[in-house]
Specification:
The chain is built from two helices and four strands, in the order H-E-E-H-E-E. The protein has helices at 10-110, 148-160; strands spanning 115-124, 137-145, 166-177, 180-190. A hairpin with a 2-residue loop joins strand 3 and strand 4.
Length: 191
């Protein structure tokens, strides 16, 4: 049995229950918002602190970033210089071939252009014995001269050019060029 009796009308009891429930929910919401505010404040503070640390780190590493940029710049400069160097080396190799052609042309001109080079074979020296073993390259010339004397003079001019270590006349033979007699020759030059 109950020791007290509630004489309030049902409507008042209902309002009283609703108020109690509303106070509970308000309290729950208040606690929730306080906790959320604390969490947001903490997050904001951490975010600002992290931002400050990031700025400090960026200031500390600015010289490192500058060195990286300079390194990349100098790497590009080195690559440019290496390309220029390889081009210069290639040109120097081509110049030696141009020197060779100039020497052949001068020797032919000394023979009053009575000698003609029809075939020119340039290759590494494959002979490992004799005088030609010290030479790196071998040049084989085949052509036509108007006579043996002209071919011999051409051989002498090539020897006297100073470009070749050894010049050998390996073969000659008579031939006809049109209605004229001529002499075919094969010269092997080592350098």
């Amino acid at each position: 049995m109950s020791s007290h009796l509630n004489l309030l009308p049902e409507e008042a009891l209902r309002r009283q229950l609703i108020r109690r429930q509303a106070r509970r929910w308000i309290l729950i919401y208040l606690v929730f918002f306080l906790m959320a505010g604390g969490i947001l404040t903490h997050s904001f503070t951490e975010s600002r602190r992290s931002g400050t640390e990031l700025e400090a780190a960026q200031r500390r590493f600015t010289p490192v970033n500058e060195m990286i940029q300079e390194s990349e710049f100098f790497t590009g400069e080195i690559e440019t210089l290496q390309r220029r160097e390889s081009l210069a080396l290639e040109l120097s190799r081509n110049r030696s071939f141009l020197t060779l052609l100039g020497t052949l042309s001068n020797a032919a001109a000394e023979c009053e252009d009575n000698v003609n080079v029809q075939s020119l074979v340039f290759q590494p020296n494959q002979n490992t014995s004799g005088q030609s073993a010290a030479s790196k390259y071998e040049l084989t010339l085949q052509g036509i001269g108007i006579d043996n004397l002209t071919v011999a003079r051409f051989e002498l001019e090539l020897r006297n050019s100073g470009l070749f270590n050894n010049v050998e006349l390996t073969s000659t033979g008579a031939t006809k060029v049109g209605d004229h007699d001529a002499f075919m020759y094969t010269l092997v030059c080592h350098f």
